[in-house]
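Dear H.,

Thanks for agreeing to be a second pair of eyes. The structure we're designing against is below in token form, covering all 233 positions.
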């Protein structure tokens, strides 16, 4: 995924001022920044659910997006959501959703209406819907709010397993203690993304770092081989 020169204002409030990001297959990227810095705005722009004023986002492969607030129909059960999204993604069955419900330990609530679920269970379902079609690029906006510790660990197992299979994952996080899990830390400040050092860097072979990043960070680069794109300028 490559995002170039993203600009977004809400009225006179200029939130994104040329934010740029490149995420390679198999990379785990954290977006950090102060409250109100524009992290959710950035993720919505990357996901294509928010039109930017200027800039371009290109995505190679399938995209999954888990918004901060679960977007669920309170009258539908978890299983109905899984069926609905499986059909939307043209999956033959909701079986992958059931497997994820098992992994995230909420299978017993599959028959419960979203409106009657706890916040944590709603968030698990929200995450499941983003993972259902095994996306190549996964965008997660503070995905574990309301998770207990056990679920938080299960969440990271799911993410690590995807990373091993070459899937790219971008996570908005406020949790300082987990930041060494990531290959890249990108701090949103003043409407632009700046790389921050992390303990270990993961740059898939064949990809060169480029001008956006400090020397040890991969960053916006070659988008020439991308096969699916979205223009927003
Ligand atoms: N739909 C909107 N209309 C007007 N202003 C908005 C809208 N959405 C966000 N904003 C403003 O844009 C700025 C960035 O908001 P955003 O939610 O993207 O920040 P954030 O970094 O994700 O914040 P947090 O860490 O608190 O979740 C804030 O000042 C917010 O008030």
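And this is the sequence the design step returned. I haven't edited it by hand at all.
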């Amino acid at each position: 995924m490559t995002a170039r020169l993203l600009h977004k204002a809400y009225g006179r409030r200029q939130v994104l001022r040329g934010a740029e990001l490149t995420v390679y297959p198999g990379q785990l990227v954290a977006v950090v920044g102060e409250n109100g810095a524009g992290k959710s705005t950035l993720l919505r722009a990357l996901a294509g659910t928010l039109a930017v004023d200027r800039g371009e986002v290109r995505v190679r492969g399938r995209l999954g997006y888990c918004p901060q607030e679960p977007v669920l129909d309170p009258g539908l059960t978890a299983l109905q959501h899984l069926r609905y999204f499986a059909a939307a993604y043209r999956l033959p069955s909701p079986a992958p959703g059931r497997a994820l419900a098992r992994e995230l330990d909420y299978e017993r609530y599959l028959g419960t209406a979203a409106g009657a679920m706890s916040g944590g269970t709603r968030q698990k379902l929200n995450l499941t819907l983003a993972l259902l079609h095994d996306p190549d690029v996964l965008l997660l906006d503070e995905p574990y709010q309301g998770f207990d510790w056990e679920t938080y660990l299960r969440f990271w197992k799911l993410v690590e397993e995807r990373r091993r299979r070459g899937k790219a994952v971008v996570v908005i996080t406020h949790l300082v203690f987990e930041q060494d899990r990531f290959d890249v830390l990108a701090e949103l400040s003043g409407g632009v993304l700046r790389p921050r050092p992390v303990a270990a860097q993961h740059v898939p072979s064949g990809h060169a770092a480029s001008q956006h990043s400090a020397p040890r960070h991969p960053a916006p680069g070659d988008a020439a081989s991308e096969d699916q794109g979205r223009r927003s300028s």
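Two observations from my side: Confidence is low (pLDDT under 50) at residues 200-233. Residues 72-133 form one domain.

Warmly,
E.
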